[in-house]
Amino acid sequence: GAVVSQHPSWVICKSGTSVKIECRSLDFQATTMFWYRQFPKQSLMLMATSNEGSKATYEQGVEKDKFLINHASLTLSTLTVTSAHPEDSSFYICSARWTGRRNLGGYGYTFGSGTRLTVV
Amino acid sequence: AQSVTQLGSHVSVSEGALVLLRCNYSSSVPPYLFWYVQYPNQGLQLLLKYTTGATLVKGINGFEAEFKKSETSFHLTKPSAHMSDAAEYFCAVGPDAGNKLTFGGGTRVLVKP
């Protein structure tokens, strides 16, 4: 229960192009999703909080025009890396918050499997 | 504000030995605490969590953790390490006012045969 699917698992793109990453909650409705970036051998860095039907809240220092987040439905949030450059190469992970599932302890966060982005 | 400190960025244990990963947190409200495991090039998988109730929490793969409010700790243990336990482990506290989790820096576990 509380499954999150993230696609693609990996993507290689040319510098200057845009890449879209999808995060879907498969068996629950996620009003709040989160997007993280992870550098090698480091912890997760929160980029933004995505709320269904409203604008995302970006963390300080994250360029909202470069990392476009859309949360148009209760089961889908997307992250689009616009005009990607090699420095955007990283591992991106989404997460969804869920509540009310007693068989799972009532409250939690489920993570996607991550997307390895390489910009060449 | 919430914060998490994981003592030791790397831990090396022998197969069959005790695994102990330390996590201390800071929170101005009663915390929910989580331990996640991450294998290379994968997302985070929940090992266990504390929300309310029993302070000794059992998780998957033989792991358990104890919430100690007086020590603001939530250390993770496993009595006998297995080679498959080699991974990165993250402790997290939340939610904050924005429903966000705050992660520790992670501890990489190496299991020696």
Secondary structure: helix percent of chain A: under 10%
- Assign an overall shape of chain B: globular
The Rg value of chain A, from CA coordinates, equals 14 Å
Number of helices of chain A: 0
Query: In angstroms, what is the radius of gyration of chain B?
Result: 13 Å
Shape annotation of chain A: globular
Fraction in helix of chain B: under 10%
Low-pLDDT sequence parts of chain A: none
Average pLDDT over all residues of chain B: 94
Indicate the low-confidence ranges of chain B by residue numbers. Answer: none
Distance between the termini of chain A: 37 Å
Distance between the termini of chain B: 41 Å
- Tally of strands of chain B: 11
- The secondary-structure class of chain A comes to mainly beta
Largest beta-sheet details of chain A: 7 strands, mixed
Structural description of this entry:
The complex is a heterodimer of chains A (120) and B (113). By secondary structure, chain A is mainly beta. Chain A has strands at residues 4-7, 10-13, 19-25, 32-38, 44-51, 57-58, 67-73, 76-81, 90-99, 107-111, 115-119. In chain A, strands 2, 4, 5, 6, 9, 10 and 11 form a seven-stranded mixed beta sheet that branches. In chain A, β9 (90-99) and β10 form a beta hairpin. Chain A starts with a strand and ends with a strand. The model of chain A has no long low-confidence stretch (mean pLDDT 92). Chain B is an all-beta fold. Chain B has no helices and eleven strands. Classes of the chains: A mainly beta (120), B mainly beta (113). The interface between A and B is medium-sized, with 26 and 23 residues.
